[in-house]
């Protein structure tokens, strides 16, 4: 990238960067070698001609766009397979995926959830049967759980799998419209297999939801098998190339061994054998929620890179009347909009790495029959997924708005990035629903704290606060982290007390819960924010980096702490010992941090190391040729391929002529 002829503003910005951009790239990637490998892989992918689109995707019809995405997905699969064989390298498909598809691969659910569910829910024999076929794409699958009538409340799913001991088969049925599967990615026209989550019935008795692996299309003709009704759900806000679909069964039989039986089992005679914990059936969702926190980091870095580079190139208005128009990045309001995006991406990355480690530890425990830490993992993954996805959505939208009119252009890529980022707020557990899951855990933890019990590490601050809620406020990062814990503890207590109040007024627990649920949701958000602050600050101070880089990383981490303290200052005034004077000091600190980060802004987004092919943006490319690219892309419009469009002769001219009469 270094030899590209760049916009002079970007050249100047890069020259004033105070840290070594390559050092930060290596830190993010996990070492210099990892960067080399990543770049070599990406270079290979983006030099494949067939993966490059001659015409921007947006001009294609819905059908052509899908077909083009499948074409590219298959080429990408082949290239990756060869590459992995040759270099023994496991690439991050998500980064290049953004480059190849702009939106989402029709194989997303195959890689992200179908294969993962076979691994997580299948017995060793079942894995041996399906995993090799799934991994080498002999079969293509998705994860079909959500139905027209139920997505959040999965105990309410209606798809039925009724066991027939005579034939040792399950009979799948979707008797009502609301029971039809609706949403699974790739289901529309791509996959031939599904993990179907259905209610198990044996001898008329319900045994809860279980995962089944089901072939739905013929492997040669791709026609739906008899008894299967399947199709695509149509255009959406984003995810256009994900090929989301619907599915229903009518007396469709599958062998007994197609129920994934790592947890619960159905024996030949129809005996149901319970698993260690019925919630382990939800395991794939926990894994993906963890992954989404990492995805939020990537999505935020995409938007930040585009908006910061554009803001360095774009000049508009003046700060001082007699001086030239300034780079819009010099407006402190612009810095306020954008630097939190850079900081959030780092926070999400650090927290993702922390959460992934917890996830892997719990998986190891489960393999040994220990499930003590599962509730804590579930609670933590739920609230972090909810808060990070919503923050990422807001940050991406703020970046888009920060690019003014040009941010509204599809060619900026910000609308697309927003489309797939905001989807993470809903899928894999709608945000409020997940926050309320965490609230269940917090309320239990609060009760345990009141009883003087030892709490799990992520909630131990509740006991600390009970012992001493009167800690003096300190305007240091550690003091702010403590402050977030006080806010969370105060909110958990208030929500708990509210439930108790309603119970005393004669409400039963469920109604009291519902009445207190806004407070419960907010308590859960505050808990999540305190984890984000504590973990990310902790990771930064433990980072080994050169003094210059460490200084910049600390500035970003502090910016995140101060930004969110100021954003939620009302909560701090209610639940911590912060004073108005402290808030004034923090405002000043915030302005200092914006000024300190300003010279490094372009260097910081360069360090996300997102190639132009991944950014896909007229506004965000490395060389900053913004206006040229906007014009070049506009000229690709089919309407610009003819000097006069047929509609002139057909409609406009007759209209004008009628007007003359
Ligand atoms: C640095 C940059 C790196 C970049 C890296 C990028 C990495 C990117 C990686 C991306 C990773 C993967 C991408 C994959 C592809 C993603 C595409 C996904 C597309 C979308 C797919 C979907 O949406 S699939 C469908 C998802 N659906 C849901 O999520 C449904 C949500 N609902 C539920 O989960 C449940 O209904 C709910 C939990 C809300 C309630 O369940 P229920 O059975 O009713 O339980 P309750 O009665 O409420 O609770 C009973 C107790 O059970 C506990 N519990 C609930 N769930 C769990 C669980 N999962 N584990 C453990 N325990 C659980 C609950 O806490 C209760 O306990 P209590 O003690 O009684 O209180
Ligand atoms: C882009 C995209 C891709 C998807 N891909 C897949 C896929 O591959 N496979 C799959 O199976 N599914 C998929 N889904 C479905 C997704 O998992 C669900 O849409 C999601 O879990 C939310 O469920 P819902 O649609 O039923 O929302 P609802 O539950 O109907 O939510 C509507 C409102 O009700 C509120 N609400 C619901 N329950 C409660 C409660 N208990 N307390 C308080 N408020 C509540 C919610 O907060 C929300 O405000 C996808 C969805 C999207 C958008």
From TrEMBL:
GO terms for molecular function: acyl-CoA oxidase activity; ATP binding; FAD binding; fatty acid binding. It comes from the Eukaryota. It is found in: Peroxisome. This is Acyl-coenzyme A oxidase. Residues 477-657 form the Acyl-CoA oxidase C-terminal domain. Belongs to the acyl-CoA oxidase family. FAD binds at residues 146, 185. Its cofactor is FAD. Residues 282-443 form the Acyl-CoA oxidase C-alpha1 domain. GO terms for cellular component: peroxisome. GO terms for biological process: fatty acid beta-oxidation using acyl-CoA oxidase; lipid homeostasis. The active site is at 428 (proton acceptor). Keywords: ATP-binding, FAD, Fatty acid metabolism, Flavoprotein, Lipid metabolism, Nucleotide-binding, Oxidoreductase, Peroxisome. Its main location: other. Pfam families: ACOX, ACOX_C_alpha1, Acyl-CoA_ox_N. Pathway: Lipid metabolism; peroxisomal fatty acid beta-oxidation. Residues 20-140 form the Acyl-coenzyme A oxidase N-terminal domain.
């Amino acid at each position: 990238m270094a030899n590209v002829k760049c916009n002079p503003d970007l050249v100047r910005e890069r020259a004033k960067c105070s840290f070594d951009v390559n050092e930060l790239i290596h830190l993010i990637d996990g070492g210099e070698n990892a960067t080399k490998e990543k770049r070599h892989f990406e270079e290979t992918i983006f030099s494949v001609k067939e993966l490059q689109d001659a015409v921007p995707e947006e001009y294609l019809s819905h059908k052509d766009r899908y077909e083009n995405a499948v074409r590219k997905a298959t080429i990408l699969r082949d290239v990756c397979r060869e590459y992995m064989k040759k270099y023994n390298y496991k690439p991050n498909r998500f980064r290049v995926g953004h480059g190849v598809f702009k939106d989402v691969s029709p194989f997303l659910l195959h890689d992200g959830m179908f294969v993962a569910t076979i691994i997580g829910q299948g017995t060793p024999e079942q894995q041996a049967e399906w995993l090799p076929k799934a991994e080498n794409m002999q079969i293509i699958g998705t994860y079909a759980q959500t139905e027209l009538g139920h997505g959040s409340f999965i105990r309410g799913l209606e798809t039925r799998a009724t066991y027939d001991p005579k034939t040792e088969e399950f009979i799948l049925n979707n008797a009502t419209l609301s029971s039809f599967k609706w949403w699974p990615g790739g289901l529309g026209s791509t996959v031939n297999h599904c993990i179907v989550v259905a209610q198990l019935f044996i001898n008329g008795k319900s045994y809860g939801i279980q995962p089944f692996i089901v072939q739905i299309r013929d492997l040669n003709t791709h026609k739906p098998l008899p008894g299967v009704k399947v199709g695509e759900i149509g255009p959406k806000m984003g995810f256009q190339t994900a090929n989301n679909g619907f599915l229903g069964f009518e007396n469709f039989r599958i062998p007994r061994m197609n129920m994934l039986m790592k947890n619960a089992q159905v024996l030949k005679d129809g005996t149901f054998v319970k698993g260690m914990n019925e919630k382990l059936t939800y395991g794939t969702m926990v894994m993906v929620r963890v992954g989404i926190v990492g995805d939020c980091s990537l999505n935020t870095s995409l938007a930040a890179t585009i908006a910061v580079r554009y803001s360095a190139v774009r000049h508009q208005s003046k700060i001082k009347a007699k001086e030239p128009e300034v780079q819009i990045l010099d407006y402190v309001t612009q810095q306020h909009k954008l630097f939190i995006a850079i900081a959030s991406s780092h926070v999400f990355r650090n927290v993702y790495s922390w959460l992934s480690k917890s996830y892997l530890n719990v998986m190891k425990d489960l393999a040994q029959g220990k499930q003590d830490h599962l509730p804590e993992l579930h609670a933590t993954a739920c609230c972090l997924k909810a808060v990070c996805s919503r923050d990422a959505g807001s940050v991406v939208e703020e970046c888009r708005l920060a690019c003014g009119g040009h941010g509204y252009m599809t060619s900026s890529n910000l609308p697309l990035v927003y489309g797939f980022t905001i989807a993470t707020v809903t899928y894999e557990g709608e945000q409020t629903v997940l926050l309320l899951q965490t609230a269940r855990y917090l309320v239990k933890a609060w009760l345990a704290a009141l009883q003087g019990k030892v709490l799990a590490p992520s909630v131990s601050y509740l006991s600390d606060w009970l012992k001493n809620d009167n800690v003096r406020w300190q305007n240091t990062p550690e003091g702010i982290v403590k402050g977030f814990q006080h806010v969370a503890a105060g909110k958990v207590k208030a929500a708990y007390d509210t439930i108790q109040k309603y119970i005393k007024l004669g409400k039963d627990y469920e109604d009291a819960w519902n009445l207190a649920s806004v407070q419960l949701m907010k308590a859960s958000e505050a808990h999540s924010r305190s984890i984000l602050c504590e973990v990310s600050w902790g990771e930064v101070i433990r980072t080994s980096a050169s003094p210059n880089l460490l200084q910049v990383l600390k500035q970003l981490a502090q910016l995140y702490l101060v930004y969110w303290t100021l954003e939620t200052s009302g909560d701090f005034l209610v639940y911590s010992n912060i004073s108005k004077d402290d808030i004034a000091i923090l405002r000043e600190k915030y302005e200092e941090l914006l000024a300190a980060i300003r010279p490094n802004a372009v260097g910081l987004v360069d360090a996300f190391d997102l190639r132009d092919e991944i950014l896909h943006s007229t506004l965000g490319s490395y060389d900053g040729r913004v206006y040229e690219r906007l014009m070049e892309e506009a000229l690709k419009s089919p309407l610009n391929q003819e000097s006069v469009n047929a509609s002139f002769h057909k409609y406009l001219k007759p209209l004008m002529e009628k007007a003359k009469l």
